[in-house]
Amino acid sequence: MEDKLQPSLPHISVMEEEMTQFFSTKPISVFVDATLGAGGHAKRILETHPEITKLIGVDQDPEALALAAKVLEPWKEKVCLVHANFVELDRVLQQEGVTQVDGCFFDLGVSSMQLDTARRGFSFLQEGPLDMRMNPLQELDAKEVVNTWSERELGELFRDYGEDPRWKAAAKIIVQERRKGVITTTKQLADLLATGLRTKIRGKLHPATLVFQALRLFVNKELSVLESALKKMIAHLAPQGIVGVISFHSLEDRIVKHIFREASAKVKERGHTILPILQLLTKKPVVPSWKEVRSNPRARSAKLRFAQRN
Description:
Elements: H1 16-23, E1 30-33, H2 40-48, E2 54-59, H3 62-71, E3 79-83, H4 89-95, E4 101-107, H5 112-116, H6 142-148, H7 151-162, H8 167-178, H9 186-197, H10 209-219, H11 222-235, E5 237-247, H12 250-264, E6 267-269, E7 272-274, E8 278-280, H13 290-295, E9 303-309
Parallel strand pairs: 1-2, 1-4, 2-3, 4-5
Antiparallel strand pairs: 5-9, 6-7, 8-9
Helix pairs in contact: 1-2, 7-8, 7-10, 8-9, 11-12
């Protein structure tokens, strides 16, 4: 059977209830889902806000967009789907004739559908090509990084993007192995790290987890574009407009926290206090309930932050 993203694959939108609550008191005309995925969060927003006139769904994965189109079919007259990275939000909004939005949501990271589709190469639990591109049209993939970068470059990548305490050892193992031949599959890389690092680990975390995380973040430029994209979105928020972000590891959450806090800080100019751009709706991140984590273990690391334009 051809390996395609399918709606039947186990994908559950994380913290749907909490997300809905933050938007519940705000009338919404224009909404932007900056990371549409399979359309789960967008569907919930459309169900709970019938007053929406336009929902713009952005995703860099064309297969995810195709699935979302089916999920959002009942609202097709209101929905505009755009194949783009969220760093292109300025262009997307201009293209759609939108200057201000009432609500925006970012669901960061890789989706369950992408993880469960072996040929996309995101998961070390399945045999697949060493790819990890969310946008299959881009040139750089994980295979090129693993097989061409120097040991120092790989180590710094695993340290900075994966926060892997064994970054030096992981890089050394990869460089030694590729002298024997090209590393081409997810299982090949995962087995290599599991064998080489097993005596150096404690706990239940698979030795390949942080390396795969680092590769995925870098290949898709997830961290480098997040700050720019979130600032662009804040600039396009209408007065009282609301923006929310779900992140799944500390590097993402750190960026969101910093941007929200900076935009919500009071500024004094010539002895006068200037109203900050944002008001924090979550001083601390909201985390999923134990019940949700039990039913969807991939939600366990999620952190949800919300802010509102003044």
